[in-house]
Amino acid sequence: MGRGAAAAAGRMALKRRVGIIFGGKSGEHEVSLQSAKSVYEALDREKYEPLLIGVDKAGVWHLGADASFILNVSNPKLIALNASAPAVVPVEAPGSALSLKDPESGLVRQSVDVFFPLMHGTFGEDGSLQGLLRLLNAPFVGASVLGSSVGMDKDVMKRLLREAGLPVPEFRVVRSPGDDLAAAVRDLGLPLFVKPCNLGSSVGITKVKRLEEVAPAVERALRFDRKAILEQGIAGREIEVAVLGNEEPRASVCGEIVPRHEFYSYEAKYIDEDGALLKIPAEIPAWQSDKIRDLAVAAFRALECEGMGRVDFFLKPDGGALVNEINTLPGFTRISMYPKLWEASGLPYPKLLDRLIELALERHAREGALLRSAEF
């Protein structure tokens, strides 16, 4: 081998294989494909060898060769996974974080050094995927099992935030349209929002303005989850903060969402580029921004999150801020708030991806040093 070829091989050997895992069986499958495309394109090819691992709606893992693995990328309504790509199964393997094998021949198709989960919603963001990756001893970006699961469940999340002394809007949880919805409306007032407890990206959400609309909205939400949450409608501004880190998380500048739809809907987030105005940084006084950023970090810690999270707030007319929710696997599309907030804070998209991968590897090394058997 000549010197040039040897040097090129050495550079290739130093690159980390990043398995971008996306798609999945949730109602946010298409959003996930958009996030994966953006991350795939932004990863520094001098440092990483990105691999596209798409999970179809039946739960089968496929290994894509390049960005053509994602079809109709220019149309968010038609974007789809190319399921003709070869199927793979993940297995733990010595010498690498994980191997992807052909399910029939057993041949290793590719190895992965670190995973970048972008499976939004059920089975990808709720701790399910994170639990699988932990069992396989694979490092991965973002919150682990606990932070992911409580961050996904709006009921448990709000109870933990309230227990930590953080201000949250009033809410009620129902499990059937036959529950006493009238009592919930009396407690919360109108308008209110009805949401599936375990879903994101505004899927299944209804803004309710009249009592007779509540039961149909609950029925709709319960099509997506076994619990529905009724949340007090807050007259205020929507402020978002991105949080980054493990033991020492830090907050980005504040951003503001000004929806041009009835509320910040699925369409406004991912399909209609003019669906909302994003003001970054938010036009609020410095003292108020600092207070909200501190609350964001406090919420991130209270929910045992790691890596990344976007914390959403309502800023009331009297200046008070309420924590609405945390998103432990925020969107990474070109119009998503999380990367935009960090870019405005001085951390460009490729550097943000670098830091998230570093945090994943740091946590994995820390967990690997823990004892796994009893000492006597």
Compact overview of the structure:
With 376 residues, the chain is α+β, with helices and mostly antiparallel strands. 31% of the residues lie in helices and 27% in strands. It is built from 11 helices and 18 strands.
Indicate the topology.
Layout: H1 3-14, E1 16-23, H2 29-42, E2 48-55, E3 61-64, E4 70-71, E5 80-81, E6 87-93, E7 96-101, E8 108-112, E9 114-117, H3 128-135, H4 145-152, H5 154-163, E10 171-174, H6 181-188, E11 192-196, E12 206-208, H7 214-221, E13 228-232, E14 237-245, E15 250-259, H8 266-270, E16 276-279, H9 286-302, E17 307-315, E18 321-327, H10 337-344, H11 349-368
Parallel strand pairs: 1-2, 1-9
Antiparallel strand pairs: 2-3, 3-6, 4-5, 6-7, 7-8, 10-13, 11-12, 11-13, 14-15, 14-17, 15-16, 17-18
